[in-house]
Amino acid sequence: MAKSRTQYVCQQCGRTTAKPFGRCPQCGSWNSMVAEVVAPQRSGRVRVRTYGTSRPLRLTEIEGEDDDRLPLPIDEFARVLGGGIVPGSVVLIGGDPGIGKSTLLLQMALVMAQGGTVLYVSGEESERQIKSRVARLKQGGEAPDDLYLLTETALEAVLDHIEALGPRLVVIDSIQTMHVPEIASGAGSISQVRECASRLQAAAKGSGVAIFLVGHVTKEGAIAGPKVLEHIVDTVLYLEGDSFHTYRLLRSVKNRFGATTEVGVFEMGTSGMVGVPNPSEAFLAERVVNAPGSAIAVTMEGTRPLLVEIQGLTSASSFGHPRRTANGVDFNRLLLTIAVLARRVGLRLTDQDVFVNVVGGLRVNEPAADLAVAAAIASSVRDRPLPADLALIGEVGLSGELRAVPQMPARLREAAKLGFRRVVVPKLVRPDDIWPEELQVVPARSVREALATVLKN
Ligand code: TYD
Ligand code: MG
User: Fold this and answer.
1) What is the pTM of this model?
2) How far apart are CA 117 and CA 115, in angstroms?
3) Probe ligand 1: pick from 268, 270, 271, max atoms within 8 Å of CB?
C-alpha cells in the first residue's frame, strides 16, 4: 500500500511545506507550522473534487445530452452500446481468452481513428504483433495516421500518455496486465484490477475520453476478472461463443447509457469480426430438412427474434443410468423437459441417452425454446422428421401445459420472413397478437397436443 506522508501547514496563512520551519517562510509568523498527515494521493493527474468546489446544479443548467455520442460505424457493436460511444464512459468487455476481444476492439480503434485520435494500449502484445494484426484487419488498406499504439503495463504511465495525447478513445488491453506501484500484489490481482479501473474511471470522467477495457474471464472465476469491476465501470459487455464455431455474440449486462437487452451478432472471419445483420438465416444455413431430431425454435435476443435449430438425439443407454447432455440449453430445463415428455406425453426415455444441441454454438436461455427442445427429442425417439416449414414456440410447464411467451408478433414475423409456413404456439395467444397472413398459426394447449399435431404422419 502507498505510504502516507507528513507535511507542515502554517495556521496563519495556510502555506504548506515539506520540512518543519520555526517561522513560516511565507507570512513570517513564528511557531505557526503544524504537522499534518496526508493520505496517499489516488492519482496525480485527476482533479479530485473536494468539498467547497462542488455546487448543486439545476437540471436545466446541465449541458450535454445523448447526442454527444460518438457515432460508431460498426452497427452490431453500436446497437449493443445503445447507439454509439458515450464520451467519458468506461466500457468493460469481458470474455474467454481467444474469443476475439482484441480483434473487435482493434477494429473499433481503426474505424474511430478516422475521425480523431485513438490510443490502443496493450499489455499483452508487442507493437509488431498489433501492427501485423492491423494489416490482417485492413487487408492491405492504409492504417489511419491517428491511431497510436502503446505497449505499457504501468498505469500511471498510461495515464500520462492519455493526458499528453488527448485522444477521444482509449483501449486498454487488458485491465489484468495493468498495475500501480502503490499496491503490493501483482498485476491481475483483485486490488490491482480494481484500483486501475477506478483510476481509469476517474480519468475518463475528468477528461471526457471514452475508455474501453478488456477483461479476461477465467474458468475458475476466482482470479480478478470482469465481475469485480462491474460496479466501477459504466457498461459491461460480454463476448460469447466458442472457439469451434465462428459466431460471436456481444451482450450487454450493464449499461448506464442504454438498454441491456440488445445483442450484437458477429462472425469471426479471416480478416476480423464481421457483423451478421440476419442472424436467423445464418443459423439455419446448414440445416438438413426432413431429418428426425431437428426442430426450429424462435427465441428473442434482446428485441431481435432469432430462429435457431435445436437438435435432439436419443439412443439406447448401454449402462443402467441414462445420460443427458445439454449443449447450448440449460441442463436443468432439459431434465424438466425430459421428465414432462416421459410423464405427460408417455415417451419412453428411461432407458435412452438424450443429447440436445443448439446449432451454431449458440446458447439459448429462454423458456420459449422448451417446446422445440421437446419436439426435437420426440422426433428422434419416434424417428420421424418434423415438417420442414414448421417452427415451435412455447414454454413447457410441469403439467405438460404450454405457457405463453412474450413478444409473439415479432417472433411470428421473423418466422414468416424466413419462409416458415406453420408455427405451433401456446393456445393463449392474445387477441392483439396479429401475425402475417401467410403463416398458419397452430395453437396447442399442451406438449402432448402439440406433438400429436406435428408428428402425426
Ligand atoms: P483475439 O482477438 O486475440 O482474442 P482475445 O483478445 O479475446 O483473447 O482473437 C484470437 C483468435 O481469433 C485467434 O484464434 C485467431 C482468430 N482470428 C481470426 O480468426 N481472424 C482474424 O482476423 C483475427 C485477427 C483473429
Ligand atoms: Mg487479446
Assistant:
1) 0.75
2) 7
3) 268
Going by the DSSP 8-state scheme, the letter that residue 270 receives in this structure is T
Asked whether 95 lines ligand 1 (CB < 6 A), one says yes
pLDDT of residue 58: 85
Contact call for residues 120 and 137 (beta carbons, < 8 A): no
Closest ligand 1 atom to the C-alpha of 106? 2
For the Cβ of 268 lying below 6 angstroms from any atom of ligand 1, the answer is: yes
One DSSP character per residue, 337-383 reads: HHHHIIIII----TTEEEEEEETTS--B--GGGHHHHHHHHHHHHHT
| Residue 429: strand, helix, or coil | coil
109-151: pLDDT as tens digits: 999 999 899 999 999 999 999 999 999 998 767 778 899 999 9
Q: How far apart are CA 189 and CA 178, in angstroms?
A: 10
| Closest ligand to residue 104's CA | 1
- Give the rounded percent of residues in the chain with a pLDDT score beyond 90: 52
136 lines ligand 1 (CB under 6 A): yes
In angstroms, the Cα distances linking 395 to 61, 297, 302, 398 are: 49, 11, 18, 10
Q: Which ligand is nearest to the CA of 174?
A: 2
